[in-house]
Design brief:
By secondary structure, this protein is α/β, with parallel strands linked by helices. The chain is built from 23 helices and 11 strands. The strands form 3 sheets. The chain has a 7-stranded mixed sheet. A two-stranded antiparallel ribbon has the order 8-9. Helix 2 crosses helix 6, helix 18 crosses helix 21 and helix 21 packs across helix 22.
Amino acid sequence: MALKLKNTQKITKVLNVFRNDLRRDAYEWFKFYFLLFSGIALIRLLVFIIVLLLAGIFGMIISFGASRDPKVPFSPIRTKVATGVSALARILLFSLGFHCITIDNREKDKNISNICVVGPHTGLMDSFFITWYFLPSPVSKLEVRSIPIFGSLCVALQTIFVDRKDAHTGPHSRKACIDNINLRSKKSSGFPRVVLFPEGTTTNGKALMEFKKGAFIPGEPVTPVLLTYTNKYYSPAAVGENESNMSVVRCLFQFDNNISATILDAYVPNEEEKRDPELYARNVRDLMAKEMEMPTTEHSYPDLFLQVEMIDKHKHVFVEHDFTLKDVKAKTGLELDDLKVILGRFLAINKDKTGSISLPEFNALGVCDEVVGEGGTKWVNYRERLFDFFVGGEGPIQYRDFLEMMILTEEGGKGRIEDVVNYGWLLFDTEMNGSAAIEGMLKMFADKEDLFKGLDGDKDGKLSYDEWKAACEKSSEIGDLLMGKLADKMGISVSSVKCQRKDAGSGVPAVETTPLKESADGGVGTEAVKIELGK
């Protein structure tokens, strides 16, 4: 009987907006060698560096002696001189291969809105384009101010800086940022247009993330700006394998890069949207997504923190991030720190560093060793069947599948009965002949002989599927035993992680999970992984 986890799964699978895999085919290598040995890439790089240095010098000249008060606009002379930065930004784009930029400007009256919201935000190229076309007053994270060249440029553009990380200054910084956005949202402020990337981070540009409400708190009209990179073979989105500097380098080795920008007419909020910035942000995002024929996703800034754990600290591993923290928290109560701990366990099991758990690694958990003992080919097939139960026959166990396994162990005995019934059936139908052996149950739960022998009404030593299902539905203890054993084999559970988070807050020492032994069929063993919370 082919059984899989039913549609009772809790975590919704969504598009992974943090993934951008690089092509490494013959055509990409041809472009690389041609542009390198022809000298075109080197000329581009030289122009890029020279112009970037000029822009930095220009920025220092513009900002020299200027007021650092974010509420005081530059003088008209400084503002006029700053237009040179716009020309340099266009040259920077050209040096990176962006020869043709298509712009569809549908804005009827520029005096209505002094705020532009841009999406999707995919990387540095967005900033170059916005600087060239709008010469705006942007909003940026505080860390940018300390970056050579870029820092002086940001000051010259009268950037609003916000500290997103510091637990002490962050809240004050964010409030000051909102106050400055509110001030500059009016044409009478004397500031250039404020430009924000309301997603708050970079994505692969395939969906619009949840919008932060900062641009919408003033309740003033906003101008939506839609950016699309229309390259056929390469996406410059600075995420996944194409993070940070790699996106710039790869642009140098493309024959031609293209940006398509659509500037919509100003969106004027109604009274309800003015009172509710979250509603306002959501409606503007929906409008932009509809215009681009693009899906939306509820990924938010905390998802980025988890993504950093999935990539930055394990550069040789790419763990699939096809869910949202908001969904996980709403349905399970798990926090970001909890998911980091679970990720650590997941990566400890994933010995081959592929970012997913393979069949041999699953076997190393020893989920069914107590039932089958030593065995040959038949037991391998048996384990494959159990493995397929958790992934629906769609390949290795991804991180989201691992979370689902944990959730099942937490609530299976009292909630997801059908999944528990099917899991137990596959576990105990060792001969794969359509009957669950009482003997296997007793091997796994020797201290529960009375419970399991009592299920065998006709004393033939086995149960049919219907008999097994009826037994599980009648006694939640069976499900609790099965799921407790599975949690032990996984070495982690939802309850243990939540308890450890609370204990960590009280100064309780970190806990170590139990080492996994090598399985009977030669599966790869997994060492203990230290669980540390509250750091």
